[in-house]
Amino acid sequence: MTAELVRGQNHPLPQVRLEVRVSAGKPIVAGATLSDEQGRVRGVEWVAHPGAPTLPGLEVSKQAAADHRLAFDLDALPQAVHRVSVLLALPTGVGGPVRFGAVAAPFVAVTGLDGHEVANYTLTGLDAESAVVALELYRRQGAWKVRAVGQGYAGGLAELLADQGLPEARQLAGSINEAVAQGLARSVAAPPPRTPETDRSRQAAASAPGPDQPYTGPGPQSTSGTVPPQQSPYTPGQQGATAPGAGHPGGPAQADSSPVTQSPSPGTAGPVDYSHPRRQTSAPPPPPPTAPPAQPGQPAQPVAGDATGWSMEERLYNQVWGMFEDLARTVAAYRSAVDFADSRMEKELDQVLSDPRSRIGGQGDAARETARAKHAQLVDQARAALDRDLAQLTAEAEVVEPALPMAYARWDNPVWHAYRAPMEIPMALRLGDLRLPETENLSIPMLVRLPLERGLWIDSGRTSLEGTLADSDQVRRLAMDTAVAHAARLLAVYPAGEFTVHVIDPAGTGASSLAPLTQSGVLATPPAAGATGVADVLHRLTQRVDLVQMALRGGAADSLPPGLDTAEQLLIVNDFPHGFDDRAVTQLRYLADEGPAVGVHLMMVADREDAAAYGPLLDPLWRSLLRITPVPDDHLADPWVGHAWTYEPSLVPANSQVLHQVLAAVAAARRSWNH
User: Fold this and answer.
1) What is the pLDDT of residues 363-373, one digit of tens each?
2) For residue 279, is pLDDT > 50?
3) Contact 456/484 with Cβ under 8 angstroms?
4) For the sheet containing 428-435, what is the strand order?
5) 534 half-sphere exposure, CB direction, 13 A CA radius
6) DSSP state, 155?
7) In 461-554, where does DSSP find H-type helix?
8) Predicted confidence (pLDDT) at residue 465 exceeds the cutoff of 60
9) What pLDDT does 224 receive?
């Protein structure tokens, strides 16, 4: 079965001789770089491009084209190579498009030599970028995997190659562009539309990405890769680090949206919107015109679901991410304007002080007052623009929040009181809310794509915001309550029997918080306690990961043992690292790294400082998990503009019985499904 990847997701490769097929609506350049274990390209001889299309173990196209086939023999690569990056770029200096936001979203697929498709990825959300790392083929523990990257660069090939550590990046980019320009006359025109039965390529259609589409483009880099999101499209990441592309809020395109139309004839092909290729093979319809037209000079009235998509769920998902992007942009513009005003005033005051004749007396005072007045005027103008945008976003949030489906809704949303077990897995899940210091009264839902692409670490230690709870016992209790709320939400949004939860509570300290799960009967087994219980649960889950990985690599997914639970698995670990020996720690690291790709997810409730005794051994474990907190904390960052977002967890309201009611309904649905 083909794996349809989202940004940041990886997938094992069952063979080493492969093709990477690229499809786009306009001629683009395809190439590849080889990297060592540190991710560094050692020299120009490690770059395959139209001017030098062949390297040991790989061959790329010799010219720009709308379709490409890149050949790989991973066993033939030099031993020092640990990563192969597939690059796409727009030709420069030939009068064509200069940014990916103006062309069709490229579609890349990894296939075997027999044509069987292993994995594919659609690079949505690109805007100003003219070069992008589409995929990585990387070596891990002796096996090869593919990862969807989607990291774009507005500076083109020169910036991309420089980011990979190539000293001669600018010179090589120039020679590549020259070789492409010389051969562009021979480039292949865009192919006619194909039907899904004859080819995996999407039919060409005319569209431009709009602000209602989730951003999945560049990281610090670029634009979400970081926040985040899921992890995903774009999802929030740790501050100062790059998140796998969250989802989520799966992270921004700036072009105006336009209607999507089919190509008028087989001979003409235009851009195509690939936002959600698994949904359909043609572009999604525009939202229905439910909002009355705005009066001249008045802002448009917000409408829930005012985004493209095949369903209301998809439209709301895209709209939430559009709101996240708009908020990030408007705050970035405000901060930039204030910084400019500050620097301008400092420069003008320095000029006044540098002239001895104007340091004292009325002339100097007048110059100072003029500089301060200009500063105040600029700041007031920036604040007025920010307030205008915030008012529009607040009005949109007020109509969107009540319309959100169950998986996206807060626990106090009435939709939970009418809970029924769903028949399909939703696109995404709400983990909490995000806001900025300038927007105390406006928050954006933090959505991560499903299935989860990385585990969660609920930090039970100190937080960075003042005014939060100082009692460590209270924070630990809240951390476990947060874990239970997230686990309950996951159980509720999956169809009956398709999600299983395990709990490790070595000393039994989380019994009161776990009561809703244990009393409702939704746990697969009682919480594991003591060294024996911990070892048993970890052994069973690591064994499941091994079995599924071997089955997928061998192409024998139908031959799994009959008693194996094929549902998605979630392991909640409380009080780590207390009660865990070195073997258990190693197994947890293995589950965090390898589990998400085969349906095993980790949720750790721990204080990182408590694990300091293990030294750097646990650093890879923490880095592989998405850190969230049980109280508001400003640790999440988006590498697009570098904002430090304040995360607020999605908790059940005090004295509410909604959690118990939902879990009782989940348990009843599971019993009915088992019978």
Assistant:
1) 777 878 888 89
2) no
3) no
4) 237-238, 633-637, 644-649, 428-435, 444-449
5) 23
6) T
7) 472-493, 511-520, 530-553
8) no
9) 33
Cβ-contact 239, 222 below 8 angstroms: no
Return all residues near 142 (Cβ < 8 A) that are at least 6 apart: none
d(CA 16, CA 138): 11
For 57: left if phi > 0, alpha if psi spans -120 to 50, otherwise beta; the answer is left
- Examine the pLDDT at 5 and tell me if it is beyond 80: yes
Q: Give the pLDDT score at 311.
A: 86
3-state SS assignment for residue 299: coil
Residue 189 has pLDDT above 90, yes or no: no
Non-local CB neighbours of 223 within 8 Å, separated by 6+ positions: 127, 152, 215, 217, 234, 251, 252, 640, 641
Question: What is the distance between the alpha carbons of residues 646 and 635, in angstroms, rounded to a whole number?
Answer: 7
Please compute the mean of the pLDDT values over residues 280-296 and round it to a whole number: 55
State the DSSP string of 163-178.
Answer: HTT-TTHHHHHHHHHH
Q: Write the DSSP assignment of 268-282 as a string of letters.
A: -------S-TTT-SS
Strand partners, 513: none
Least Cα distance to 216 among 205, 208, 227, 200 occurs for 227
pLDDT of 249 > 70? The answer is: no
pLDDT at 206: 31
Query: Which letter does DSSP use for residue 284 in this model?
Result: P
